């Protein structure tokens, strides 16, 4: 996966390399530029699809937790941008709704969807069996977990043999719950897990020497490596391949409506164009799915 973008400026990176745990906006939060040639997507409302869902205030509110680039992060003006935001905005257009991202702590997004405080969650959510018990997921991309290490490190880093290592992750993500925590148990506790509030802080921990490697969703790791000015490099193979999707209330009208809107974007080629703007050309879905089942029932 190749994300075409300018590297992080040395001055910004140097300003971030300070001895503090409260580090934000250093690797992938406030970027100096969007991908080359990026344009905010816009598409027309499709009446037949818009009729599938009625929203009281006419706004599709999407809970998200930047920085988690390239899914979502803040640009230099403080706007929440990213490939998932572009997809959600295009879905809102098809449904005839305005789009509003709502910044939240990652762990609070799904509860907010469940309580009706926001319409859906869009923050790099993995669609898995446990989450499907309480939510439906409109799948929009296949990805996995990828590790990265400090490029100048001479330590042997093997994700399949991680005992004795210190691994950084974003708190409450699948990288923590399904990757490093089980590996820690398999190592009999001989693996240190550093949990941060954002993926960029996990990457920064590696560059500062606090962690041997970090684990994150493969597009997130690729983005961080691409913008690290050769300070980070991937290690090991992609694992835990799974669909990523928008989280909506279980058995709600919104799920089929969002899926129908995504199907429209796929058929018109707009879905592919949106992902291409972010350098993503692998893992694309061929048809809209809810909980990894095609909406046409095939």
UniProtKB/TrEMBL annotation:
Annotated InterPro entries: Solute-binding_3/MltF_N (IPR001638)
Q: Does the keyword Zinc apply?
A: no
Q: Which residues form the Solute-binding protein family 3/N-terminal domain?
A: 59-281
Give the signal sequence positions. 1-24
Keywords annotated in UniProt: Signal
State the Pfam families in the record: SBP_bac_3
Which Gene3D superfamilies does the record match to this protein? Periplasmic binding protein-like II
Q: What is this protein called?
A: ABC transporter substrate-binding protein
* Record-linked PROSITE patterns: PROKAR_LIPOPROTEIN
Organism of provenance: Corynebacterium flavescens
The organism's taxonomy opens as: Bacteria, Bacillati, Actinomycetota, Actinomycetes, Mycobacteriales
């Amino acid at each position: 996966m190749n994300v075409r973008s300018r590297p992080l400026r040395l001055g910004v990176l140097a300003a971030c390399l300070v001895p503090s745990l409260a580090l934000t906006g250093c690797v992938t939060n406030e970027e100096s530029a969007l991908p080359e040639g990026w344009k905010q997507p816009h598409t027309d409302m499709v009446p037949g699809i818009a009729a599938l869902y009625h929203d009281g205030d006419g706004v599709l509110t999407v809970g998200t937790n930047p920085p988690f680039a390239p899914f979502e992060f803040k640009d230099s003006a403080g706007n929440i941008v990213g490939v998932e935001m572009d997809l959600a905005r295009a879905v809102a257009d098809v449904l005839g709704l305005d789009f509003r991202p709502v910044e939240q702590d990652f762990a609070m997004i799904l509860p907010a969807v469940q309580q009706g405080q926001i319409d859906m969650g869009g923050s790099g959510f993995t669609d898995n069996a446990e989450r499907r018990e309480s939510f439906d997921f409109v799948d929009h991309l296949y990805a996995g977990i990828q590790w990265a290490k400090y490029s100048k490190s001479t330590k042997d880093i093997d994700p399949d043999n991680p005992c004795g290592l210190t691994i950084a992750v974003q708190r409450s993500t699948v990288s923590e719950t399904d990757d490093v925590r089980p590996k820690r148990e398999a190592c009999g506790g001989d693996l240190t897990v550093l949990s941060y509030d954002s993926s960029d802080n996990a990457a920064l921990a590696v560059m500062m020497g606090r962690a041997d490697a970090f684990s994150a969703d493969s597009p997130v790791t690729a983005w961080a490596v691409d913008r690290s000015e050769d300070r980070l490099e991937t290690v090991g193979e992609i694992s835990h391949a799974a669909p990523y999707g928008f989280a909506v209330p279980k058995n709600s009208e919104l799920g089929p409506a969002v899926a129908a809107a995504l199907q429209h974007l796929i058929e018109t080629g707009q879905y592919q164009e949106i992902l291409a703007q972010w350098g993503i050309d692998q893992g694309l879905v061929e048809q809209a799915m809810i909980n990894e089942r095609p909406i046409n029932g095939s």
